[in-house]
């Protein structure tokens, strides 16, 4: 049984599940930034590229958007000094996915090197030369960037 309420909230056949058809704050302009924000504290919505979002930011033309909050990722805290409840949303699991892929790559690579290539010790690390060169390349990149900020005429080869 579906019941229609005046605030456009409906209950479906699944117990304790609410479907929200409209968001609470849609396309609210932030004057200083020039961006639009949409926010629905009690449910998710979809707008441009934001899917199942709780919070979304849109560009000035409302053609591009970025999801900045998922309804399933809310953390509530109480700010005793201000006397406010603060809710923080996150969107996506990008860092966790990258970390998971990296760990899978290393474990799979080590197993391959050890059992197929019969490598021993540190030689079992896949692409060992690449991983060993990362710290040196990061330092060189930082030196190059700092030299450009300080406007020194330094080429990358001089670093």
Number of strands: 10
Describe the main β-sheet briefly.
5 strands, antiparallel
Decide which structural class fits the backbone.
alpha+beta
Shape: extended
Keywords: Glycoprotein, Membrane, Transmembrane, Transmembrane helix
Pfam family, one: Man-6-P_recep
Transmembrane segments: 86-112
InterPro entries: Man-6-P_rcpt
Features:
single chain, alpha+beta, 3-stranded antiparallel sheet, 159 residues, 31% strand, 5-stranded antiparallel sheet
Walkthrough of the structure:
With 159 residues, this protein is of the alpha+beta class. Helix content is 28%, strand content 31%. It is built from two helices and ten strands; from the N terminus they run E-E-E-E-E-E-E-E-E-E-H-H. The relative contact order is 0.07.
Blueprint of the fold:
Blueprint: E1 3-4, E2 9-11, E3 18-20, E4 25-30, E5 35-39, E6 45-47, E7 50-58, E8 65-70, E9 74-79, E10 84-89, H1 94-115, H2 128-149
Antiparallel strand pairs: 1-2, 2-3, 4-5, 5-7, 6-7, 7-8, 9-10
Give a brief description:
The protein has 159 residues and is α+β, with helices and mostly antiparallel strands.
């Amino acid at each position: 049984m579906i019941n229609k309420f005046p605030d456009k909230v409906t209950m479906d056949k699944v117990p304790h599940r609410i479907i929200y058809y409209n968001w609470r704050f849609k396309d609210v302009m932030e004057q200083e930034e020039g961006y639009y924000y949409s926010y629905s504290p009690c449910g998710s919505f979809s707008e441009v590229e934001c899917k199942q979002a709780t919070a979304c930011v849109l560009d000035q033309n409302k053609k591009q958007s970025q999801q900045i909050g998922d309804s399933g990722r809310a953390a509530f805290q109480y700010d005793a000094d201000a006397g406010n409840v603060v809710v923080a949303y996150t969107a996506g699991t990008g860092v966790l996915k990258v970390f998971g892929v990296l760990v899978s790559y290393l474990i799979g690579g080590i197993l391959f090197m050890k059992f197929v290539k019969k490598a021993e010790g540190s030689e079992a690390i896949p692409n060992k030369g690449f991983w060993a060169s990362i710290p040196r390349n990061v330092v060189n990149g930082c030196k190059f960037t700092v030299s450009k900020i300080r406007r020194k005429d330094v080429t990358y080869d001089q670093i």
